[in-house]
Amino acid sequence: MPSYNSWSISFGGGIPFMQQADLKSIQSGNTLVGYSAYFSIDKALSHTFGLKLQYDRGETRQGYFNTKDAAPANAAANLQVAGRTQYDGISLIGDVNLSNLLRRVDRKADFRWAIHGYAGVGVLAYRAYQKDEFGQRLMTENKPFKFNSLFGQAGAGLKYKISNRVDIEGRLMYVVTGDDAFDGGGDQYSAVNSISAKHSDNFFNATLGLSINLGKNANHIMWVDPLKDIYNRIDELETKVDNIQLCKSGDADNDGVCDDWDRQLDTPAGARVDGAGVALDVDMDGVIDLYDKCVTVPGPVENNGCPTTTSNNGLVSENETKLDGIEFDLNSDRILPSSNPILNSAISYINSSNDSYTVVGATDTRGTDAYNQTLSERRASNVKQYLINNGVQSSRIDIQGNGKHDLKYPECDPASKCPEWKNRANRRVYFKAK
After folding, report:
1. Using H for helix, E for strand and C for coil, what is the string for 211-228?
2. Which of helix, strand or coil describes residue 207?
3. What is the pLDDT of residue 134?
4. Between β-strands 150-161 and 137-143, what pairing exists: parallel, antiparallel or unpaired?
């Protein structure tokens, strides 16, 4: 399995706004702008979850202008109290990659955008100042780091992947200080802090920053499709198995049965065989399935294994083709590696005949008509492209999507009525002669 980077550092800056305190950053048409900055060391524990050890530094600025409420007894009628708070915070923050929880696993494009959710707790130290109507600046609170000076913050961020090493991110965090004196209005019983009762001094912090991904590997795990590696591993194992020489005596006809046990050493290429290496002839009419146009219905050799009289106007049903085993995962148009031998057999079958065919795609009954119609067309299109890429003339193949109205097991409507193996059999592709 590939290795991925899991460490990074992040830093950025922004503007804090205090809107739920007695002294506010936006009040009566006036806006007092502070600043904030952060630095964090980040560790991704999986493609969806990580932890941040973050240091925050900033200053909020807030005021109380021309209030209509009762002013403190020691203030003028047109009260103009200004406060500012310089703060430092150290916190441990959980990071949830919401986009990786919701991505479609069959998406082929690289991920460039991601939504993250954050929540954490830490300790807070601050120095709060107040400037009164006479311009005097007074320190109203000086609170150092203590174990009981807890604060919390939570919010969301939108990340964009600039390169494998650098991400840019905008965040909006809500900071809960848990301290009524944080806004610079004095202690919780002061005149300013009695203007609006029970207002906690929390604030919003909007920031823009960068994340630098560390490590020797190409990609960071937070930008990884969780199932991409599994698919790659399956393909790799399929290739390795194909390349292993299992038979010491050899396999002259490449049918998967060693010559020591093969009762038919000249099996045609692409023919399915039984355990003894004999080409399959399901209807036992003397025409092996590879060349039999009616696999399940006996017929003479001179009519390619089909009855001399038919009532289906020349249509070849899916049970009479070499594509019975082409099935798909739920909500996916990806051809599974296990289907390649069946498709290769179909290529030989088509190239040995003079007919043209329609590749028909179908789905199970989950989802809407429109979605399943599009999905069935994509499945048929992928099978057609595989055949063309491996030697079938494109003019002999077209596609048809039947959506969820072409069920191999009609009793599976709705899908909850059936076991999963029947629903999987309904998600399929088969041929129809033109």
Report:
1. EEEECCCCCEHHHCCCCH
2. strand
3. 58
4. unpaired
Which domains are assigned to the chain?
A: 7-228 (2.40.160.20), 249-433 (3.30.1330.60)
Q: Is 229 helix (H, G, I), strand (E, B) or coil?
A: helix
Q: Which tokens go with 33?
A: 């702008």
Residues 103, 95 contacting (CB under 8 angstroms) = no
pLDDT tens digits, residue range 204-253? 999 999 999 999 988 888 888 766 666 666 666 666 555 555 676 677 78
228/249 Cα distance (integer angstroms):
38
The answer to whether residues 361 and 340 touch, using CB atoms and an 8 Å cutoff, is no
| Separation between Cα atoms, residue 146 and residue 159, nearest integer Å | 33
Q: Which residue ranges in the chain fall short of pLDDT 70?
A: 1-2, 28-29, 65-81, 103-110, 132-138, 187-199, 226-246, 248-249, 308-325
- pTM of structure: 0.52
How far apart, in whole angstroms, are the C-alpha atoms of residue 94 and residue 108? 29
Where on the phi/psi map is residue 25: left (φ > 0), alpha (ψ -120 to 50), or beta? alpha
- Residues 121-170: tens digit of each pLDDT: 999 999 988 875 555 566 777 888 887 789 999 999 999 999 999 999 99
Mean pLDDT computed over every residue of the chain? 80
